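Quick one: structure for this chain?
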Amino acid sequence: MAQMKPQKARLANGLRVISVTIPSLKSVTVTVWVKTGSRFEDKKVNGISHFLEHMVFKGSKKRPSAHDISEAVDALGGEFNAGTSKEWTNFYIKARAENVDTAFDVLSDMVLSPLLEKEEIEKEKGVIVEEIAMHEDTPIMKIGDVFEELIFTGNSLAWDISGTVKSVRSVRREDFVAYRDKHYYPENILITVSGGVGKAKVEALAERYFGRLSSGKKQIKPKSFLSKQKKPGVMLYAKKKEQAHFILGFVGNPRGHPDRFAEGVLASILGGGMSSRLFSEVREKRGLAYAVITNNERYIDTGYLSTYVGADVKRIDEAVKVTLDQHYGIAAGKLAISQAELSKAKEYLKGHLALALEDTKDVNTFFGERELFLGKVETPEEVFSKIDKIEIEDVLRVAKKIFVPQKLNLAIIGPYKNQERFEKLLV
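Got it. Here's what it folds into:
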């Protein structure tokens, strides 16, 4: 992986631009980020961030139909897509570096000048309702929503990114206009460009296509989250399935927290890869599950460390107990961490990041999220260095702080009726 040197600029209207020149590449990815997502929404229009993501592909000022937009990107031999999270929305085009001008033209047209025609809005409601239904019928996707509904109860972070059938059906054109007016302004937008194009050209194109966007809006902040949890929480989502799915997790720290690197190493030790502790204990030794994965998730003001397990329906109690015992065992110092295990976990994290950064879309994500929420550009080399500095004592300190009953949550999807059965497992 070549060393990446991100260059940051700010247009006169306040819009930020990050360019990462990689001379060896013949391609480029242009990504437009907007600092808004489902946690910024009003309950009655929950899902509008995701809905708007769909609508920008349905027609714009220069390209009035979905076909016109698709044809413009196909003519480049490129690819384009978008994504919505609870805290950001993004839109990207990946193409040959020689076509970066057109990529800027198409993206700016879509994002800044969507037509939002009423007929297209009504048609797309059906598409999103089907998307919600598909999500509902896919437990490995749905379980994350159930877990966040439990852990973030009472806050907009608990809402599904896609919204509900009712909220999606109720959205009107005026809602889109008001939402865009509230969130789509220069100070809330970031452009990241990586690949075979230079800084000067990127900034010139950003000025040409986004420089006229008027500034001066006041940044909207979502309702902050403060956990009031005092004992283990359980949420059972009863569904007849051949496999049980659960996420066991603990409330953790937000984006940018100093302990994030130690938390990453801890997650890697527990469930990062096929030689991790939980994969070995849950799947290999006992045959309780097929999939076992531990991850960190971070938001502006909170976060969590969680383990997903796709378990045998009849042996879920044992799977939950073994998973929990590994967490508590590390925190209590009963399950010692060796230097070899620490080194392996570090290399796992660094290796996966290095592999991801071979794709310019992921390069944009790496730099984009950091700039959007932390206001600074952190290079991969700096991240590697901070991971290398983590010692066993750091991992144990974080485990003792996070792995406590009052931060514990368990979400389950499966053919069960008795939630109390699972509550007893956490006592």
